[in-house]
From TrEMBL:
This is 3-hydroxyacyl-CoA dehydrogenase. Residues 199-286 form the 3-hydroxyacyl-CoA dehydrogenase C-terminal domain. It comes from the Bacteria. In the central section; belongs to the 3-hydroxyacyl-CoA dehydrogenase family. Belongs to the 3-hydroxyacyl-CoA dehydrogenase family. Residues 17-193 form the 3-hydroxyacyl-CoA dehydrogenase NAD binding domain. The chain holds residues 331 to 637 of 715 of the full protein.
Amino acid sequence: KRPVGAPDRSLARKVTKVGVIGAGLMASQFALLFLRRLEVPVLITDVDQARVDKGLAYIHEEIAKLEQKGRLDGDAANRLRALVHGTIDKAEYADCDFVIEAVFEETKVKQDVFAEIERIVSPEAILATNTSSLSVEEIGSVLAHPERLVGFHFFNPVAVMPLIEVVRTPQASEEALATAYAVAKDLRKNAIGSADAPGFIVNRLLAKVMGEAARAIDEGTPLMTVERAFAPLGLPMTPFQLIDLVGWKVAAHVQDTMVSHFPDRFHASANLHALADLPQAVEKDRSGRVTGWTKDAQKALSVGSSP
Ligand code: 3HC
């Protein structure tokens, strides 16, 4: 096996324009981070203009908040506003040197996106996926040049979580990896190298914790009791607060991936899916903050009624 660490930094390509594919919860957060830290043009697209506008609105709101807090002066805020552009026209990726996607978490969807993007970008452009747990190698198998694709996995909330997982496929070029590490450094994040294994490193650990919390519910323990049981562990969030933060559908998806690869090691919870399917889970997906709706969620479960 090849080592997963950082290659020679001198191989890193210069990034003068970033393309973000998708304008959802994660994509709009890291689009903002690229703007703030790299100060280069950032392009975002999505499948329709409404989604693009929602992502842009989030970015503009956050820039305004940073300005109000005094973390950006007026000139810097205006510079960032001028650097971000949203469209549904993918042809505009043509001059991006680093293109990262955070679209729907399904291999086929991501493959279609990259196959299309590869025809548009220059041969030197580096491609990255923010997938939480899918195989980066499989996503890149549709590319004419899979060596240019790396995993570049952010954590929620992107502005404060210090880590990025850089995922190395067997095909990944040293240039692609060096660029990914250099970009992570410019974003002021700690990059850790991961093999292209299901769940990489962090989600493998988290899926274990979340899976055991879900298993407790499946066994009949009320959801709020599980939450209270975790409090003495001193973690920044309880398991269901964390699931609420990352998004219930994302959490259920990560769990499915882990169960499908390691059925003997991870727990499949129907209750986790039931919760992910609640309308509240979808509505709150974008909040990015703990919403406290776990009490409502408890009522929707078939087991356990009071803490
Ligand atoms: N966006 C921007 N900034 C945010 C934010 C957000 N959504 N949420 C919190 N912050 C900032 C606050 O502004 C504050 O910054 P300041 O001190 O400079 O003003 C700082 O974070 C602390 O926030 P608070 O004081 O309001 O709240 P807490 O002290 O309770 O911290 C937390 C909030 C940082 C979210 C903390 O609870 C935490 O670390 N939780 C664990 C999060 C985690 O584990 N994330 C990984 C999830 S896994 C994942 O994303 C992978 C995916 O593939 C599933």
